[in-house]
From TrEMBL:
Source superkingdom: Bacteria
GO biological process terms held by the UniProt record: tRNA threonylcarbamoyladenosine modification
Sequence similarity: Belongs to the TsaE family.
Coiled-coil positions: none
A GO CC term attached to the entry: cytoplasm
Principal cellular location given in the protein's record: cytoplasm
Protein name: tRNA threonylcarbamoyladenosine biosynthesis protein TsaE
InterPro entries for the chain: P-loop_NTPase, T6A_TsaE
Subcellular localization, as worded in the UniProt entry: Cytoplasm
NCBIfam families (alphabetical): T6A_YjeE
GO molecular function per UniProt: ATP binding; metal ion binding
Gene field: tsaE
Organism for this UniProt entry: Grylomicrobium aquisgranensis
UniProt keywords, alphabetically: ATP-binding, Cytoplasm, Magnesium, Metal-binding, Nucleotide-binding, tRNA processing
């Protein structure tokens, strides 16, 4: 299975979905979050942080393109929104390691950070409080993760 769709009807349900992703994820996994402003990319990331036992509030790293949170494993949260048209080596590779989870918002602006195996989560805004999450995976480990999310 390479694709799965899940809908949520509140922010809390999206937090729960993020928790489940974090609990089933393996160190080194990379998640690309696609969707318009306000879709719920940061909200899903908050849930992933909760699943890793991170107590600090996760916000959009608007001024810091990369934020690192320490939980049961590190969470690397990248929001590349402000990097549109910036084609330079950011040196992030030095910070990201395969012992943690990496979540990237606006990954199209940082293609150099996207490994061949990853999970893409596309978020669509359906109504004020409902969202559709479509998961696409590349790689066997990610297919297993998708099975667990069903
Ligand atoms: P993005 O990072 O994609 O720009 P945010 O996560 O910052 O989006 O914002 C999503 C907004 O939508 C938040 O204010 C959140 O409370 C609200 N919201 C309402 N319903 C949902 C839902 N089902 N899932 C996620 N967010 C929701
Ligand atoms: Mg955001």
């Amino acid at each position: 299975m390479k694709e799965l769709t899940i809908e949520t009807y509140s922010r809390d349900e999206t937090h729960d979905l993020g928790r489940r992703i974090a609990q089933a994820a393996k160190p080194g996994m990379v998640f690309l979050l696609d969707g318009d402003l306000g879709a719920g990319k940061t909200t899903l990331t908050q849930g992933i942080a909760m699943g890793l036992g991170i107590k600090r509030n996760v916000t959009s790293p608007t001024f810091n393109i990369l934020k690192i949170y320490h939980g049961t494993m590190p969470l690397y949260h990248i929001d590349a929104y402000r990097l549109e048209g910036v084609h330079q080596d950011l040196g992030f590779d030095e910070f990201l390691d395969d012992g943690g989870l990496t979540v990237i918002e606006w990954s199209e602006y940082v293609p150099q950070l996207v490994p061949p195996c990853h999970m893409t989560i596309t978020i669509e805004l359906l109504e004020e409080n409902s969202r559709r999450f479509t998961f696409h995976v590349e790689g066997e480990e990610y297919e297993k993760l998708l099975e667990e999310l069903k």
